[in-house]
Here is the input.
Amino acid sequence: MRKLPVYFLIDVSESMVGEPIEQVQDGMATIIRELRTDPYALETVYISIIAFAGKAKRISSLTELYNFYPPKLPIGGGTSLGVALDFLMNDLDASVQKTTAEMKGDWKPIIFLFTDGNPTDEYEKAFERWNNKYRRSVNLIVISLGDNANMNIFGKITENILLLKNTDAESFKNFFKWVTASIKTSSLSASESNSDELQLSPIKDDNLVKIDLEKQLPIKIDDNFVVILAKCQTTQQQYLIKYKQQVAKSDFIPNAKVLSYRLAGTYPLNDSYSELSDGRQAVGKVNASSLYGFPTCPCCGNQYGFSACICGGIHCSNENRVQTCPWCGQTAQYGLGGNDLDVARTRG
Here is the structure.
């Protein structure tokens, strides 16, 4: 039986922490549940999930639909698209049966790439490898979750680029319905028409748009979120502090707007974060004066989740004046600081 391989290549960088990663995880469960009601999909579809941040990791090997159960998605540091694409190509070589003179191989694989930002690695060699050896034999669909990505970069590896403009719960729900319908249509085409041409479902939601690369969209800087890596002083566990952009009117300059960030949440990390990170998370700075909200530590419950050491590390602290930085090990007296502090932010 010829299988229809469907890969989900999912960006799990720090900017996806919280609601975005939860929405993707819930959406994956919905896709699997709905596909299991379709006899054509049950007969042909095999699913694999590859997560990528600074590194890439196979979360689920290519598995027949009725045996597939959506896994929990991790979080890592960075957005190494070149690394992810190389990992995917190696997996395609190992997992997908090619057509030979003696037998028909699998149907043309479908790849859904979900990302909310731009690559943070040197991706050019991976792109060249993809275009030379894989592009014509694989259907790649890139979906930008929000409008922070440079679509021209993705246009170098596929003409199928979509933008999910809003990333609220209802928008994600409708988007995953579209993904499910597209997989169903493709499996039906493979089973009945013996065709592996890409059969995407019609887009009926104004929130999901196909990108016309001829318009040469300008490069956008990802300023929707600020994500800061911190460490618990009590447990030594790392956590992320996430702030969401808000734009307000200036109190001092007429008709001017002020960019700031409001606390969205704090999220504990496990070992998978370091497994998927390349060790180069902090590449920019944000001034503390633009950050609003007082995070607590999600690991031990310390009241102060945002304390800064002279080494630059952010950690939690209790009400005592003497604290030990879990990053560098220095013990010092802490007090209330001013807002004129530049803090290292992750690459998201």
Observations:
- The CA atoms of residues 53 and 79 lie 5 Å apart.
- The radius of gyration is 22 Å.
- The mean pLDDT is 90.
